[in-house]
Amino acid sequence: MSPRVVFPNKVLPYLLVAPQLAITLIFFYWPASQAVYQSTLREDPFGLNSKFVWFDNFKRVLSDPGYLNSLQVTAVFSVSTAFVSMAVALLLAVMADKVIKGRGLYRTLMIWPYAVAPAIAGMLWLFLFSPSIGSLAIGLRSLGIRWDPLLNGTDAMILVVSAAAWKQISYNFLFFVAGLQAIPKALIEAAAIDGARETKRFWTIIFPLLAPTTFFLLVVNTVYALFDTFGIIHAVTGGGPGRSTETLVYKVYSDGALNQLMGVSAAQSVILMVIVIALTAVQFRYVERKVHYG
């Protein structure tokens, strides 16, 4: 039995974690508690007059057809963004892993888009798909495809999903490449000697061994799609047309900052926080069961 390790200084461990605890308390728990408290109030835009209304704001939110539409839009947007960004990143990582000459250059070029701010990424895609001057939009028109994200809700959703996924592909690519490098090459070579084709080797050996990385990215991409894509939607569509791209986080901003419905906006933020916590818990509770750590 190994001897028990005792830290000689009893105060130093608390001092080392104190900065992180202070940051968490100031920038997460305190704003979260204020949002919960404000969600029970009905107040004017300037905060001069407030009334405690218990759960009336939550009842108003959950009975609002616009909020239910935002919930549906968020589900479609989040699933699409996470799937596209992870699938494309995995494909690119597998292809880049096969490159022998100039491998570092290819990987560096793939990581660069992650440095682009979300709003800038949205504007880049907006220019590319602009119905009047966008090069990709002109190419679609030449193929007989009508494209107008300013008036068509489906086109607008495709545009914001493409921009959000493109922004996140670099992040996913980096982790998938690291996961591929950790896989023993001897396993793949042995399967190739046994006659397993490249596709079968990927689905039976490579992809199962990437399960921990894939699960981690699934959680990260879910949170990214719910929160960090606000800048893209705000810059590209503003929630339109006809609220077809108004996600939950954008509706919190719209009702709070634009319509000055402080209590309603706070209630929406609390509901969104509960949704994220619940999704993360479900992922760790049920999805992680199928993840094998080697």
Automatic annotation (TrEMBL):
It holds the Pfam family BPD_transp_1. Residues 71-283 form the ABC transmembrane type-1 domain. It is found in: Cell inner membrane; Cell membrane. CDD domains: TM_PBP2. GO terms for cellular component: plasma membrane. InterPro entries: MetI-like, MetI-like_sf, UgpAE/MalFG_permease. Keywords: Cell inner membrane, Cell membrane, Membrane, Transmembrane, Transmembrane helix, Transport. One of its GO terms (biological process) is transmembrane transport. It is a multi-pass membrane protein. The chain crosses the membrane at residues 12-32, 71-94, 115-138, 158-181, 202-227, 261-282. Part of the ABC transporter complex UgpBAEC involved in sn-glycerol-3-phosphate (G3P) import. Probably responsible for the translocation of the substrate across the membrane. The complex is composed of two ATP-binding proteins (UgpC), two transmembrane proteins (UgpA and UgpE) and a solute-binding protein (UgpB). Belongs to the binding-protein-dependent transport system permease family. This is sn-glycerol-3-phosphate transport system permease protein UgpA. The gene is ugpA.
